[in-house]
Specification:
single chain; 184 residues; mainly alpha; 6 helices; extended
Amino acid sequence: MKTWVKWLILGIVSVAFGIFVLANPVAASISVTVLAGIMFMLSGGIQLFAGFGEEGAWGKFVGIGLGVLMLLLGLSLIWHPLEGVISLTLLVAILFAASGVARVITSFQMRETPFFWPMLLSGALSVLLAGYIFANFASVAPSLLGLLLGIELLFNGAGLIALAFFLRTAKGAIKDKLQAKFDK
């Protein structure tokens, strides 16, 4: 199978999963939370294992302590996924607000460049999105993570499809150039 076809299939699958996720964002939010819990448990176990291998008492204490905290966080997300969805949505809103404020501040350092307005607009939209999430938290929280995942899957799929067609045409253009070179 040609490389571009593999990328095309992956892109189509990503778009299909994005549509599937957007059809039921609450279930997707819960799935994301459970998956995050599993990942926290895995990394907590690895951190715990690494903590026992530390040489100094302080390093051992910090390594084991962080490992236990990550394990507990992972268990909490798995055992109480709805509460985990609320917590992770709050974290996402805080990250949107923080990154938006950082971009607004950065934009003023770029005031004399043509990139000022795009950076300012980008930051302001992130701050407004965070404000919207905070203002409508009860109605937005259960589905936000699923919506973000679905949108990311759609954009990822579109990007992969574009890459596939680029690879197809780029290989064709290279083949045409090589053929023209040999025909001379």
